[in-house]
Amino acid sequence: MRRRDFLKVAATSATGAVLFAGCGRIGDGVPETEFKIAQPVYTPNDWAFGRDAWFATAAPPDQGGYGLIVRVFEGRAKKVDGNPDFPGVRGKSDARAQALVQELYHPDRLAGPQRATTRGSGQFQPIGWDSALQQVAQILRDAGGQRAVLITTRPSSLQAAIIAAFQRVTGIRHAILEPDELVVLRSAVRRLFGVSTLPIPDLANASFLLNFGAEFLHGWIAPVQLARAYGEFRQGRPGQRGLYYHVGPRLSATAANADRWFPIVPGTEGLIALAIANVLLTEGAVPRDRFAPYFAALGLDEARLTNDYSPERVATTSGLTAEQIRELAHALVEHEPAVVIAGTNAAASTNGLFNLVATLGLNLLLDSLNQPGGLLLNPEPPLPELRIADDAILTQRQWAELFQQIQSGAISTVLVYRANPVYALPPATGAAEALRAAQHVVSFSPFVDETTQLADIVLPDQAWLEQWGLEVPDPGPGFAAVAVRQPVVQPFVDAHAFGDVLIQLATQLGQPLPWASQEEATKTLALQLRRLGRGNIQAADDKQFLVTLQAQGGWWDEQSRGSGTVPSSPVVQPREPSFAGDSAQFPYLLVPYPLPAIGYGELAHLPWLQALPEPVSTNVWQSWVEVAQRTADELGLSTGDVVRLITPQATVELPVYVNPAGQPGLVAIPFGQGHTALGRYAEGRGVNPLTLAAPENDGDAGTLAWCATRCRIEKTGRRARLARFEGMVPAFQLEEFPIVRVMAPSA
Amino acid sequence: MPRWGMVIDLDRCIGCGACVVACQAENNVPINTEDVYHQRRAIAWIRLERYWEGEFPNVKARYIPVPCMQCTNAPCEPVCPVYATYHTTEGINMQVYNRCIGTRYCSINCHWHVRFFNFWEPKWPDSLKNQLNPDVTVRSRGVMEKCNFCVHRIVKAEQKAKVEGRALRTDEVTTACAQACPTNAIVFGDLDDPNSAVSQLLAQAEKEHRVYRLLEDLGTDPKVYYLKKIDIEATTAPAGAH
């Protein structure tokens, strides 16, 4: 082609492109226009316009269930962001939400239903959906409802409705596997405030935050909502900056943001809270009548609190000084409104439930419940069908009993949906042995994880971006909210939504559910929201309601607020923490912690998250042992030395990371690695700390106390290279030329 | 004509890394495998640095996100023998990938170390290629790459404004990192528009003596502004010398 011809063609093409674009929506990157979600998705076979569309959907339930938008280009999901309309998040997202596209296009996703060549071998061969469904229906028919159990991770609100309907017709038992710390948190909130939904701190309006260990900025219960509110807490109000004190054993990624960090002995959070209450009482800092429910919840009285939990007494066990405890108490009343939160490590001690009740109960003393800047209780889901049955969430003790029943043959058939008990429960629970002993195991996981490896049949669930659903964020934004999940793309592989499979199985068993599909269930229940006659959507008819719902990504009612009750009788007794192992033989306390990106290992298969440096150590892709600088000096260790980490339970070898913020006497290790399955990005990396933790239970909650084991470390004389970000670029924070500049607050 | 700039409030930044992953997703940045980290060749157009201050128990970990500073007098530009790195009229320091011959002079001359060389052909498993952003070129082996303030978003927004016969609206376009940032620590916009979020933030922060730029003394006039971290235990005067 001659240059002149080329220019002619180019000019014509460019003009055509501009005219074409001018007729409709143009691409992306323009928040005010582009991110206005213009239409619901009708999932055509492909979008071949060469242009973008943004569709609203919802984050997975274990990531907060908030509203998202997804950029779709020619039928492929390209980018995930927060839904700008959705309350609480307002257009914001996090690394986990961004990585949802990697779940969708993951190279190790199961391409369709599979049958194990030999049970437990981890080898599968494809089968057809019709055959697979018939086989599973026959298995359920043979087992009968009483001899089958459905183990799931926390389901979406819509899946909870379908599971409940499936249970009604089949009689199958439902068991939910959640991280222990959340089981304890739910239990504490239920006992303390009489609600089954999680509360949310109103950080955007708070003046002071006292946090006992909760990783609220890095993957805890609602990381995006809380992070967004944190930004407002710090710099969102002219002339007013919120103050944040963190009490916990580690300078975690969240604690690093605190104005002051108070390092403590793990498990003493509750005792410190009692000492704070003691100061508030003896100094008359808060009205006396506020103490009644606090005393009632903890079975205390004024004399016992005054005598047994003085700052001086608690100082001997907690690692804080009496003066520091008084400082915390004074800060609570000097900076109003103040709010107290607690979780993560605080919930993982042998006295975890007491810790959370005593710490969260401080909100009763501050009268911060449902007050601006305080702890906001969330209402129950707007429809009873969307409620997740609390009694289905099992504790460690109950899991052990369940696996006993499976091994004894009382339960013959196990259905597992996205839960991975073989990895996520300690080996002593007996999950793997039970599944091997079960007559039939059916998995609905999209990936071959450790549990799915033991399955006979796998019916892979669709990715979150491929399916319909409704999601009640837990915790919500302080009022009723429901996010709608819609498929933003056609299924990338031959997977069926879990809800659809349950509906089809029920039909094959001759007991059809009320809905023909997960899509129909979504729309039917969504229309029940319209029947409530309240909320943000004004629509003339059902169709308009659904279109509006899908376009804006959810329904919410700011008038529907949560309310609770205060305890009138003891819900837990004060307890000191205990640790497994002899202190002479095992001189250090082992503090495991969830990684901000991959959590407890459920997201270890997503490479963006594996490659995202852990903020404090900057380590990636592996496990390591964090030791304090002083400990390292005593033992002659430096970063990269391989040590033997020994607990009464097990021994592993790992490289050391010398943490300048490490507390002497503690050794920390991240959760998340140690997978033997779950795909190429997860397998064969590091260790799972659950194998190291002694089977100590929280005596009240019945959960595993994974932060209650002693350990020792021995040098091996070997070294290993730690994959880490630090040192990637030369960067030095010199005193006279600081990279991060800091200043005192303005007067 | 806009003059694009960014404000990063270190008092809001929580070190979550949402910006890092959002940038990877938007700009087809290759997956940083374990091997890549071992070789010290990870690519992150915006990275999160962590600095230690003090000793236990009075120790602080400080986070700072570092993208390209988009220097007005960029030292990376004059050293490129083939003009692959250049300055746009809107103030963005750009890289022309198919002009780059990989001398890496620009990288050597960048004091912020925000230019990255593709030592290998970027690879994704076939299925993950479905996620790649069609608006952004995948860089080949032997080519430098860097943050460009999501210029493809800017171009599209400007094109749209042109088609609609109007000027670009205030804060009509933003970068992937700023869009994702859950605490609103990162804000992007037109430094010459007094109504833009960045201008207003800077005006307010100037009054509070919170504004600074990295390695400002070098005189390159970076267009990424930082707002100082507030620390109740800081003893320095708010005026903040240096």
Account of the protein in words:
The complex is a heterodimer of chains A (747) and B (242). Chain A is α/β, with parallel strands linked by helices. In chain A, strand 1 and strand 2 form a beta hairpin. The longest helix of chain A has 21 residues, at 3-23. The radius of gyration of chain A is 27 Å and the shape is globular. Residues 6-40 and 43-47 of chain A have low confidence and may be disordered. Chain B has 242 residues and is α+β, with helices and mostly antiparallel strands. Chain B has helices at 18-27, 34-38, 105-109, 151-163, 176-180, 197-207, and strands at 4-9, 47-53, 60-66, 85-87, 93-95, 115-117, 144-146, 186-190, 211-212, 224-227, 229-230. The longest helix of chain B has 13 residues, at 151-163. Chain B starts with a strand and ends in a 12-residue tail after the last strand. Strand 26 of chain A pairs parallel with strand 11 (229-230) of chain B.
Measured on Cα atoms, how large is the radius of gyration of chain B?
18 Å
The chain pair with the largest interface is: A-B, 103 and 95 residues
Q: Which CATH architecture of chain B would you pick? A: 2-Layer Sandwich
CATH class of the domain at 182-376 in chain A: Alpha Beta
Instruction: Name the shape of chain A in a single word.
Output: globular
Q: CATH superfamily of the domain at 182-376 in chain A, please?
A: Dimethylsulfoxide Reductase, domain 2
Oligomer status: heterodimer
Rg of chain A, nearest Å = 27 Å
**Biggest β-sheet: strands ordered side by side in the sheet of chain A:** 5-4-16-15-14-6-7
Strand content of chain A: 15-25%
Distance between the termini of chain B: 32 Å
Structural class of the secondary elements of chain A?
alpha/beta
Helix and strand element order of chain B: EHHEEEEHEEHHEHEEE
> What is the overall silhouette of chain B?
globular
Low-confidence stretches of chain B: 237-242
The amount of helix of chain B comes to 10-25%
Strands ordered across the widest β-sheet of chain B: 8-1-10-9
Number of strands of chain A: 26
Counting DSSP E segments of at least 2 residues, the number of strands of chain B comes to 11
Number of helices of chain A: 23
The largest sheet of chain A, given as strand count, sense and whether it forms a barrel, is: 7 strands, mixed
